[in-house]
Amino acid sequence: MPVWTPTTPNPTPTEVDNSYATTLTTLHAPGNPVVFANIYDPASAAALLSLNSGSASPVKAVATASYAIAASLGIADEDLSLEQNFAAIAKIAPLVRAAGLPLTADLQDGYGARLVDAIEKAVALGVVGANIEDSYPEKGFARGLECLRSIEEQVERIKLARKTAEAAGVKDFDQREDGHFQIGTAPRWLVAKDGAGRGCKTRKGVLGSWGNMRFRMGRQPERGKSRKSKS
After folding, report:
1. Residue 98 pLDDT
2. Where do transmembrane segments lie in this chain (predicted)?
3. 10 Å Cβ neighbour count for 63?
4. Which helix (H) or strand (E) holds 62?
5. Which residue, 195, 125, 121, is CA-closest to 158?
6. Sequence-separated (6 or more) residues with CB below 8 Å from residue 122
7. Is the pLDDT of residue 223 over 50?
8. Residue 122 has pLDDT above 50, yes or no
9. Less packed terminus of the chain by CB within 10 Å, N or C?
10. Which residue has the higher pLDDT, 110 or 204?
């Protein structure tokens, strides 16, 4: 695996390459979760990539964080525009590719009606996976279900994202999603197991999506069933 250092001159422009998406997907192994260190600029990328030296390669993949990118600009996460996010990703992507690693990007909610544009831009930069939240950033994050898209809407958005990525040359585009939970109901990923979670590994030919984290109060319900939570 090539090793990137701060002295690497003019990293080769990234190319659309589905093999990086395949690599990223294979890292999601049940019982052996992949750990992503989030980066937000070339300096944080350099610090992370420098850990892979000689025979040691602890960093298997890289992920950007919209919150951190926004913070570096002195703004709130929900105020980060598509253009600002991609300006940062464009500086990071060549460095990660030069190191021979897959890059997944935090695309917030996919930027509303600009979801297709966001995915096309991401793939063009060499991104092979993305986090697309099921929230409405403009509504904030403290109003319960009012902040979340319906399960049906989010499933369709994930389908559209994967279809767009495939058309752009990355058929194995790896989608992750921030987790949300409701007390007293089945987790959203379980209710929409064909939509927003590769909690169902077969996917039934529909989607490939991973969750950053999922919380459940009480016992884990059986597949396809829900239980009342116990506090």
Report:
1. 94
2. none
3. 23
4. strand 62-64
5. 195
6. 86, 89, 105, 107, 130, 165
7. no
8. yes
9. C
10. 110
What span, in angstroms and rounded, lies between the C-alpha atoms of 38 and 52? Answer: 16
Lowest mean pLDDT among 4-13, 43-52, 201-210: 201-210
Q: How far apart are CA 82 and CA 199, in angstroms?
A: 29
Angle at 121 between CA 66 and CA 205, to 5 degrees: 90
pLDDT in tens, 176-216: 765 544 444 454 544 454 444 433 222 322 334 444 443 33
Global pTM exceeds 0.70: yes
Q: Which residues contact 123 (CB under 8 A, 6 or more apart)?
A: 16, 164, 165, 168, 169, 170, 173
Asked if residue 77 lies in contact with residue 108, where contact means CB atoms within 8 angstroms, the answer is yes
**H-run or E-run covering 105:** strand 103-106
**Arithmetic mean of pLDDT, 156-160:** 92
CATH number for 18-211 (one of 3.30.70.890, 3.90.1150.10, 3.20.20.60, 1.10.10.10): it is: 3.20.20.60
* Amino acid at residue number 86: F
Residues 6+ apart with CB under 8 A from 66: 77, 80, 85, 106, 107, 108
